[in-house]
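Changelog-adjacent note: as of this version, every example in the card shows the full chain rather than a window. The one below runs 459 residues end to end.
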Amino acid sequence: MSGAQTDEGGGAGRGEGAGAGSATAGARPRRRRPSGSRWWVAALFLLPALVLLGALVVYPIGFSVYRSLFDASGNGFVGLGNYGALFSDDGMRTALRNTVVWVVVAPAVSTALGLVFAVLTERVRWGTAFKLVVFMPMAISMLAAGIIFRLVYDQDPRRGVADAVWVAVHDTFAEPAPFPGAKPRPDADLRPSGGGAFTTRSVVRAGSPVGLPLVAVQPRDVRAAKPAVAARPRPGKVTGTAWLDFTRGGGGRPNVVDPGEKALAGLTVEALKGGRVVASAVTAADGTYELPAEAVGAHLRLPAADFAVAYNGVDWLGPALVTPAIIGSYVWMWAGFAMVLIAAGLAGVERELLEAARVDGAGEWQVFRRITVPLLAPVLVVVLVTLVINVLKIFDLVYVIAPGSSLRSANVLALQLFQSSFGTDVDEGLGSAIAVFLLVLVAPVMYVNLRRIRKERRR
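Full-length structure tokens:
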């Protein structure tokens, strides 16, 4: 009995010891944390970055929100009044509208051009050189690019490249007037007849030459002209002379062809009867003209086409076109940026997929639309989001390119922020409201960008 009990007790003891041992073995061992994982050490290392972040980001944002609730002096609390001014003031609405145009047009056009350049240059030998040329504007600052395009868009064709090309194309299909701005002498028989034309007061007769004296002719238009010759009468016909009635040095007689006075060649002379043109002629190199017998008893007219002001191109920096013109300069700079990023993404596309589609009979357009673009969608989103954020901050191009007369028409929110905060009519409350509003506009774009980055990390 006692032995059994001893055995049972020993068994129980061993059982309890085994149970205790198994319980100890089943418990999770306590890990010792290294000194580097202590929270205060991590906080110590993060402190400089947190201080800079707070001083440069958090504090300015908080102060801008606070300052936007007060008036220009900073003493009167106006609540959301400054935010209401963003949508009630005409200048603010113009800036807001132009900002919307910028956000919709500039990133989309830059990304589309970058995509086209990246795809097309992939198959040519000189693609690298072309990419280098397209990307070169990125090396130019916004200020320098603004100065360049201020000259490019100059309305004077002798200085502005855009208008020089435009005028050349226009003049190729529409001949310029021979003597723009010219007009008859005040005491001549010619009178204005509407639309820039001039018509004789009296009817013409055969055998009596009709002089057409003009003044206000530009010196460059008669620099190579021959001396004028007085027309001789011709039986049954109407003759005459068109000339610049001006004698160099003075001494000439009015309405008389004096020696040394210049002929006006290339003028169209029309004969009118009952408001209808019955005959016409063009003055010769010596200024003379000759009309047939049908012109007898008619009035002579010099049409407006003889004196139309020379075509000087398009007013690129006028109120109507200044915003599209500046967007064009932005696309010139940033299309290369989009092209480089998209080309990098295109290099990672599996060629087997493209070749398989071509083997299956897909055309190049179908391959581009159904395979290349979907595979490049993540890269295109990155480029588009980056450009949208950049466009919301656009300031220097508008400030430099737009002339003073068109600055209000080209205004954007970032430029209005500068003008309201540091311009002549300073209102820091309104400027702070614009800054907060821009932050609100950028926040959704940043959120989309952060979500995209997190999804890529999970893959």
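Structural remarks: The mean pLDDT is 86.
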